[in-house]
Amino acid sequence: MRSSLTLFALIALQQASSTPLSKRQDFSNIQYPPGTGANLHEYPPGTGENLHEYPPGTGENLHEYPPGTGGTPPNCPPVGNSVIPFTSTFHVLATPDQVVNGTTNPVFTGGLPGAQATYDFGINVDLDLICYYITLTGFRGEYQSMARTSTHVHEGARGRNGPPRLVFPNPMGDGDVRISVGCMMGPFTTGLIQNGQDTGTGFRVQQIQDNPAGFFADVHSSLAVPGAARGQFPPG
């Protein structure tokens, strides 16, 4: 039905545009009947116009919105000075020398020389929320990963590998400095399937807060697929 209406509208528009101006109806001198709302000096009293103030309880001139009207939703987290109340924050420095490859006997690869990334994370475990500010410099090649993006938080101790649990938009920028900023809430997915399920399934940011040293952040390049730079979360 939508396509039919669109077709009729296009036909009508074409016909109207092909009609000479001399044969088109002139609507410029139409006089509306008295009291219909046109040609009035002012709107009739009480219609909502020319009022000094809106009647009490109409939503105007209120000191605050009534409870439950959407002014302050009960599930909205308290915000002070426009800052999200994080239950923990982390600063991670990712460098090439921390990148390892392999799972049984991982070896240090050296990553992508010259690449470096900083990850600033804020976590709210009650909301299962993580906010991020990622800065990447010295990156070369193309982003490459089997996950949905190439910028991750993996579960794995220092010197060990592990599956990605969180994926972030790849940092972007025109010059040498690339940035990715945002927030996301669970449930999380990574786009990488292992053992028949997504590696983000069931993950909660509470796990990072409980054991930060068991996680690392990294970024992957086509010139260093195991990782261009990697950084371990600091111990709690």
Describe it:
The longest helix is centred in the first third of the chain and has 17 residues, at 2-18. The strands form four sheets. Strands 1-4-5-8 form a four-stranded antiparallel beta sheet, with no helix packed on it. A four-stranded antiparallel beta sheet has the order 7-6-11-12, with no helix packed on it. The protein has a two-stranded antiparallel sheet with strand order 2-3. It is globular, with a radius of gyration of 30 Å. Strand 9 (193-194) and strand 10 (197-198) form a beta hairpin. With 236 residues, the protein is mainly β. It has helices at residues 2-18, 206-210; strands at 88-94, 100-101, 107-108, 116-124, 129-137, 151-155, 164-168, 178-185, 193-194, 197-198, 215-221, 224-232. It is built from two helices and twelve strands.
Throw out a few tags for this protein.
mainly beta; 12 strands; 2 helices
Summarize the structure.
By secondary structure, the protein is mainly beta.
Determine the strand fraction and express it as a percent band: 25-35%
**What's the SSE pattern?**
HEEEEEEEEEEHEE
The count of strands amounts to: 12
Fraction of helical residues: under 10%
Mean pLDDT: 79
Query: Could you give the distance between the termini?
Result: 60 Å
Supply the number of helical segments.
2
Radius of gyration computed on alpha carbons: 30 Å
Runs in which pLDDT lies below 50 for 5 or more consecutive residues are 1-25, 68-82
Q: Largest beta sheet: what is the strand line-up?
A: 1-4-5-8
The backbone outline, from C-alpha atoms, is globular
Largest sheet: 4 strands, antiparallel
The computed structural class is: mainly beta
